[in-house]
């Protein structure tokens, strides 16, 4: 498990907001939107690397830079992780079953993509154990250009792991558009923070 710092609820500016949403029946919410991946897709094709691994890297890099996406509950207490790693689904096309793959976040784009691809291909188990608290979850949905998506609910209200999805990209005029979804725990992440993530991520994709 990664390193974290326990948050002092007496001085934390978000303490009351955290408690209000933590007591909700459903404290998580999901936002679906569109991203322009025109430049990013061209870069990925030129590098001949996995779109999924490259996109996971991009989202994780941008989300790690926003403090609110690194808060979690640990043993009932609020903590802030120094860095969040990745966990993603990877499909076996023959059996049409997915496995959940865990890969540590690596700052270097090429190294992460290579490591993630090799780890996914070499893992035999569908599930290697419960997901850690210090991950971003990714679940690609590349068969449909959806406009909205929902997820299963474990019933654990303190599960604050952000979940990112993306759908089948499509062309709109001369742009390549990707459906993208963000599910977060409202105790930690408000709409403004999702807005910051989307702005940062779109800038990263544009500069690719």
Brief descriptors of the model:
5 helices; Chloramphenicol Acetyltransferase; 3-stranded antiparallel β-sheet; alpha+beta; 7-stranded mixed β-sheet; 30% helix
Explain the overall architecture:
The protein is globular, with a radius of gyration of 17 Å. The chain has one domain (4-207): Chloramphenicol acetyltransferase-like domain (Chloramphenicol Acetyltransferase, 2-Layer Sandwich). It has helices at 15-22, 38-47, 51-64, 109-122, 191-207; strands at 4-6, 28-36, 71-74, 77-81, 85-92, 97-103, 135-138, 163-166, 170-172, 175-185. The chain has 208 residues and is α+β, with helices and mostly antiparallel strands.
SSE map:
Layout: E1 4-6, H1 15-22, E2 28-36, H2 38-47, H3 51-64, E3 71-74, E4 77-81, E5 85-92, E6 97-103, H4 109-122, E7 135-138, E8 163-166, E9 170-172, E10 175-185, H5 191-207
Parallel strand pairs: 5-7, 7-8
Antiparallel strand pairs: 1-4, 2-10, 3-4, 5-6, 8-10, 9-10
Helix pairs in contact: 3-4, 3-5
Brief digest:
The protein is an alpha+beta fold and 208 residues long. The protein has helices at 15-22, 38-47, 51-64, 109-122, 191-207; strands at residues 4-6, 28-36, 71-74, 77-81, 85-92, 97-103, 135-138, 163-166, 170-172, 175-185.
